[in-house]
């Protein structure tokens, strides 16, 4: 009987796999060394930028915010690239494995936008879907001003959209923690920087291994902080000067939002954002998680993005 049962089980597994319309990814932990080895280098006008370019098909840019890097999307890249998408994931200048030259002006939203448009021109990609997380909406807004036709679809994922959605107390605390954590790390009083605290504070029901946390930490430990502090300065300026930094965008927009986010809240800004982008109700997805959706809901987020681009 045992051989018969074994064959039936194998047949069942093969049947399920053959009838699955979307390739699924393994839950095996991705090593930062392997992630780094896959990165290519583009020499932008302001310094080298490292990026992942994986898969073939419809191009998607996955854009990190502050203080993370392309490492944030490591769990989503395999699933998207295995299902007919060309996935571009940069470490923006000043973050991750990219260069970090001195000069706070280099890290203005205008310059971040300019460099990303340079990268896409280098890759000969003229139009793409852009997924924005955290502060990358500020850079994306500038991209839309500099080249309104480059981005054909937007996916908004726990990102800075409107001052009403920002918990300013939380942002100030993060900025102060960043400066204090960096000072203590440099003095040898703590092993890591503020980044580990930021990641842990923004996880709801996920625990990362030390190796996964180190993937976020390495850049800051190596002293890449200029871009991070330049961002917090801009955020505080925006609260006074800009009431709504979003330009017009006529393409389809989807929202994938962790509704337990403590720093960027959806409800206070929902009506304005839905109206501004004319977002369809079916393209609004509130998930039971926090700020780091690509960490905690990677497979679900990837599925939603693919369904948004190519509805079933």
Protein architecture, described:
By secondary structure, the chain is of the alpha/beta class. It is built from twelve helices and eight strands. It has one domain (30-309): 3-Layer(aba) Sandwich (Rossmann fold). It has helices at 2-18, 32-38, 77-81, 109-122, 136-146, 168-186, 194-201, 210-221, 226-241, 270-277, 293-296, 298-309; strands at 40-44, 47-54, 58-63, 85-90, 128-134, 151-159, 253-258, 284-287. It has an eight-stranded mixed beta sheet, sandwiched between helices. Strand 7 (253-258), helix 10 and strand 8 (284-287) form a beta-alpha-beta unit. Helix 4 crosses helix 5 and helix 7 crosses helix 8 (210-221). The longest helix has 19 residues, at 168-186. The radius of gyration is 20 Å and the shape is globular.
Secondary structure elements and pairings:
Blueprint: H1 2-18, H2 32-38, E1 40-44, E2 47-54, E3 58-63, H3 77-81, E4 85-90, H4 109-122, E5 128-134, H5 136-146, E6 151-159, H6 168-186, H7 194-201, H8 210-221, H9 226-241, E7 253-258, H10 270-277, E8 284-287, H11 293-296, H12 298-309
Parallel strand pairs: 3-4, 3-5, 5-6, 6-7, 7-8
Antiparallel strand pairs: 1-2, 2-4
The number of E-state strands comes to 8
pLDDT < 50 stretches: 1-21
When the domains are counted, the total is: 1
**SSE sequence, one letter per element:** HHEEEHEHEHEHHHHEHEHH
Oligomer category? single chain
Name the overall outline.
globular
Q: Please estimate the helix content.
A: 40-55%
How much is the radius of gyration in Å?
20 Å
Per CATH, which architecture? 3-Layer(aba) Sandwich
Structural class, by secondary structure, is: alpha/beta
Going across the major beta sheet, what is the strand order?
Answer: 1-2-4-3-5-6-7-8
CATH class descriptor? Alpha Beta
CATH topology: Rossmann fold
- Superfamily (CATH H level) name: Alpha/Beta hydrolase fold, catalytic domain
Tell me the major beta sheet.
Answer: 8 strands, mixed
Strand content: 15-25%
Distance between the termini: 42 Å
- What average pLDDT do the residues reach? 86
* Helix segment tally: 12
